[in-house]
Amino acid sequence: IDRDRAGTMGVTQQGLSVQQIQNAFSLAYGSRRVSTISTPNNQYEVMMELDPKYQSDPSALSMLYIRSSAGQANTGPLIPVNAVASLKHSVGPLSVNHTGQMPSVTISFNLRPGVALGDVVAAVNGLARDHLPPTISTSFQGTAREFESSLRGQWLLLAMAIFVVYLVLGILYESFIHPLTILSGLPSAGLGALWILMLFNMELNIYSFVGIIMLVGIVKKNAIMQIDFAIEGQREEGKSPLQAIYDGCLIRFRPIMMTTMAAIMGALPIALGYGAGSEARRPLGVAVVGGLLVSQLLTLYITPVFYLYMESFMERVQAWKHGNHPAGAVEATAPGTTEGWQPEAAGGAMPGASLLAWFKKGSPRK
């Protein structure tokens, strides 16, 4: 549409030239209902449009006229449409879709066998970031959109679960430090779950993430058994942190192994894929079994060391609060021989004694 030329011919009236031309095209090609003829037996709609033989002829535009606004109302001269508009051939869509009142184009895709949806979403986002101009924005719909939203919510859910567990443990033990010791085994469980998912070429979906959240409640029971016994030994019997956690590991080893094996055996049928719909549930079982196996191997060593370190840290803080400087390096002593533990009979001193001595360095408690 040549707006300047349309204005000189009097087509424009309060800036309505485009609307006038659009109305002319709508009446000619839009099959608009302009009236209804009623008879005693029926009703007939009156549709205004060009004769079908002219609808496919571009030269028919010269037969369309627009009333000029010059002169009195509805008495202005008629101007042919081709005098204020030009026609050109091009390829265009049959319909223009809109998303949020903005023109949009939908590109659909399917996943190849063995390709994870998360990898495809990351690849598409990378291509859009590298090749599309800033004026074009992209968003996923359907399953990909649900996948993105679920991932954002899952990490928040995991963080909230750990935070709630920390609050509950802090209330039970009346301490800010002991809950951290109990939760120290969670990273090994999470890494074990992710590692075994990668080993079996499984994706991190909603089912496997539920398994990781389940590990938060299952894995911490190992540390609770050890720490609870150690704290009771320190408070009731006056044991040193090293002696208390050592006794806790020995006495609670059997229930720790029993509960862990029971949990693994319970999740094993899901991991092996038995039953209807097992393909969807299998990542949950694999994540639970892998996290339990790795955490069981590591928490038996990580939790005592972390406990001794945090005890040493608490003693340093208390000494600093009371204005007392901790004493020099105190040699770590192994548990007494009354418990039946003799490092010399085993072929030498306790492995890691120097590491424990470093943890206990500066501690006034022997």
Rg on CA atoms, Å: 39 Å
CATH topology of the largest domain: Multidrug efflux transporter AcrB transmembrane fold
**Uncertain stretches of 5 or more adjacent residues:** 327-366
Shape call: elongated
Helix content: 55-70%
- CATH homologous superfamily of the largest domain - what is it? Multidrug efflux transporter AcrB transmembrane domain
Average residue pLDDT: 77
Describe the fold and architecture:
- The chain has 366 residues and is mostly helical.
- The chain has 2 domains: 3-83, Multidrug efflux transporter AcrB TolC docking domain, DN and DC subdomains, CATH 3.30.2090.10; 150-359, Up-down Bundle (Multidrug efflux transporter AcrB transmembrane fold), CATH 1.20.1640.
- The protein is built from 12 helices and 6 strands.
- The strands form 3 sheets. It has a two-stranded antiparallel ribbon. Strands 3-4 form a two-stranded antiparallel ribbon. The protein has a two-stranded antiparallel sheet with strand order 5-6.
- β1 and β2 form a beta hairpin.
- α5 packs parallel to α8 and α8 (206-237) runs antiparallel to α10 (253-272).
- The termini are far apart.
- The model is unreliable at 327-366 (pLDDT under 50).
